Automatic annotation (TrEMBL):
The chain crosses the membrane at residues 17-39, 59-77, 135-154, 160-178, 240-262, 277-301. It comes from Fusibacter tunisiensis. The lineage of its organism: Bacteria, Bacillati, Bacillota, Clostridia, Eubacteriales. It comes from the Bacteria. Its main location: membrane. It is found in: Cell membrane. One of its GO terms (molecular function) is ATP binding. This is ATP-binding cassette subfamily B protein. Residues 19-303 form the ABC transmembrane type-1 domain. Residues 340-575 form the ABC transporter domain. PROSITE patterns: ABC_TM1F, ABC_TRANSPORTER_1, ABC_TRANSPORTER_2.
Length: 585
């Protein structure tokens, strides 16, 4: 596959901008080259005494016209090439972000946030540089170089041009030879930057843990280490470029030296005029830049290609979970009923050997409540992650409304479900934004109702700006219990067909818990509920309770029937009774 496969549609659409920009650039290069000729003609007129006071304004006008033309042209190519490169940056970033959003949780479990952020910033910048500055430098250097040499050879002296030009290609060769080094070091700079981003991101999102474990010093050490590594990798790059400039200057000095020695002799022998000699020296000075630029362009394009390849890897990775074989009836507003059936479901996380869930079967009718209990790591969260299709589910093993989950469009499944995750993530926007997250059309009254049902309304009203109170990153200015209840209200506000509470009542007292459950029943009468919980008080009224143990469904029934069974559930119940008794004593 071509490295340009993903940018091809963009280039197809926007190539005219590059075309006109290139034409403008070439026109400017042409204009710029006239200046030394004007200066040369001026010198000759001065030397041979033909320069008069009246002819001076003519030279001034020439130079002014050229300068104005160059200024307009420069604006023109900025507005074409640079603008298009910025547009490409915007377009590519959108593509990468949109693609990443489609990836499954598994992808994010295996790719660090810092790396992904580096791709979305550094790599895309490198591509923009190649398609903006790179293109400009290439056109500029190539035509400027070509036209300068042509003018020198035709308007001044061919032999002098050849001799003076001799050392200059060394610059191109030298810079291209360094290209390999540049690529290697650039790759290392990118890696160092993404490691640094990772540490910064983790340090801030885990700041509470860092502080509570008094690990600020260690955290700072890790940061310093990565920061220093980033600095060192950048210094390697700086050293490389630091070496380039003096050497290029030296080589171009050789050309000037040859021009002075050989050109001077030509002037003495009457081969060329002093004016032509002056023009020639200006031309030699102007040639060092195109030679250097050609080398830089090569490296700039190489960097851009390295980054584009890395972005291609992301874009080439297909989302694990996609809508295939969707049943036609789901096109439009139709949705299945909220019954849920697990039919011998066995699921193993990608990259692991042991199934997290093994041969799970149960059925839940619309409006029923299922409680899921089990020790930590027994597979409770996995079970609900699969209903949400956050991981790829084996065909025919989960059904909603009697239809295989894999044949219902993903967005339809997810919009049926109000999910309250274990981590109660809230966005660092205001409370209203968070409540409206799954339901844009949520009215103020509905917001009040949802928060009242989740028993958090009074607390929100006590905040200075009520629903408009801004939350810090991850809602740090709210207590754990408040965050939990806002998350519940967010799910309730969706008026979902299925509601899933993953250990979402752990931070509230039993009385508040009872009120929330009561409201759930009243507000969401026909909603199928799945409650993952540890407290018997949360689950004992459920229509069905399943007990998971190491991924196996070991018990199924109601509170009473499971107590009679005298197994895992009864054991858990006894332990909780004992704990309660002890805590009261
Ligand atoms: N992304 C993952 N990749 C690989 N294995 C995983 C992943 N997530 C969970 N597991 C494993 O799957 C098993 C079930 O985990 P799960 O989170 O479903 O348990 P749980 O019952 O919800 O636990 P808890 O009560 O602690 O939340 C565990 O052994 C866990 O290590």
């Amino acid at each position: 596959m071509s490295v340009f496969q993903y940018v091809k549609p963009f280039l197809k659409k926007y190539w005219p901008y590059y075309f006109f920009g290139t034409l403008l650039l070439m026109a400017i290069d042409g204009l710029q080259l006239i200046t030394p000729l004007v200066v040369g003609a001026f010198t000759d007129a001065l030397m041979d005494g033909t320069l008069t006071r009246e002819s001076i304004p003519k030279y001034i006008i020439y130079i002014m016209v050229i300068a104005t033309g160059v200024a307009i042209g420069r604006f023109g190519w900025r507005m074409t090439i640079i603008k298009t490169a910025r547009r490409l940056e915007y377009w590519l970033r959108n593509q990468v972000f949109t693609h990443l959003e489609k990836m499954s949780l598994n992808y994010f479990n295996h790719h660090k946030t810092g790396d992904l952020m580096a791709h979305c910033t550094n790599d895309i910048n490198a591509v923009r540089n190649a398609f903006g500055g790179g293109v400009i430098m290439f056109v500029d250097a190539f035509f400027m170089g070509l036209m300068t040499v042509t003018l020198m050879a035709t308007r001044i002296d061919l032999k002098l041009t050849l001799v003076a030009f001799l050392p200059l290609p060394l610059i191109v060769v030298f810079i291209i030879t360094l290209g390999r080094q540049v690529r290697n070091r650039f790759q290392k700079v990118q890696e160092a930057f993404s490691q640094l981003t990772d540490v910064v991101q983790e340090s801030f999102s885990g700041i509470r843990i860092i502080k509570s474990f008094v690990q600020e010093k260690q955290s700072l050490n890790t940061f310093n280490e990565k920061n220093e590594n980033n600095f060192r990798k950048n210094m390697h790059m700086v050293k490389l470029f630091g070496f380039v400039h003096p050497l290029v200057g030296f080589i171009s000095m050789l050309s000037t030296l040859i021009a002075i020695v050989y050109g001077g002799r030509l002037v003495i022998d009457g081969g060329i005029t002093i004016g032509k000699f002056v023009s020639f020296l200006s031309f030699v000075g102007m040639l060092a830049w195109p030679m250097m630029a050609l080398g830089f362009v090569y490296n700039n394009l190489q960097r851009g290609m390295v980054s584009l390849k890395r972005l291609n890897v992301i874009l080439d990775t297909p989302p694990e979970i996609i809508d295939l074989d969707v049943i036609d009836q789901f096109i439009g507003a139709y949705k299945p009923d909220a019954s849920i059936e697990f039919d011998h479901l066995t699921f193993t996380y990608p990259g692991t050997d042991t199934p997290a869930l093994n041969d799970i079967s149960f059925e839940l009718r619309p409006g029923e409540t299922l409680a899921v209990v089990g020790k930590t790591g027994s597979g409770k969260t996995t079970l609900v992650n699969l209903i949400l299709r956050l991981y790829q589910v084996p065909d025919e093993s989960i059904k909603i409304g009697g239809v295989d989950l894999n044949r219902i469009p993903i967005d339809k499944v997810r919009s049926m479900i109000g999910y309250v995750p274990q981590d109660n993530f809230l966005f660092s926007r205001n409370i209203a934004y968070n409540l409206r997250f799954g339901n844009d059309a949520l009215t103020e009254d509905e917001m009040i109702r949802a928060t009242k049902s989740a028993q958090v309304y009074d607390e929100i009203m006590s905040f200075p700006k009520a629903f408009n109170t801004e939350l810090g990153e991850r809602g740090v200015n709210m207590s754990g219990g408040q965050k939990q209840r806002v998350s519940i209200a967010r799910a309730l506000a969706m008026k979902p067909d299925i509601i899933i509470l993953d250990d979402s009542l752990s931070a509230v007292d039993t009385k508040t818990e009872e009120s929330i459950l009561q409201h759930l029943k009243e507000d969401l009468e026909n909603t199928t509920s799945i409650l993952i919980a540890h407290r018997i008080s949360t689950i004992k009224h459920a229509d069905q309770i399943i007990v998971l143990d190491q991924g196996e469904l070991v018990e199924k029934g109601t509170h009473e029937s499971l107590l009679q069974l005298n197994g895992h559930y009864a054991d858990m119940y006894q332990k909780q009774l004992l704990e309660e008794k002890l805590s009261k004593e």
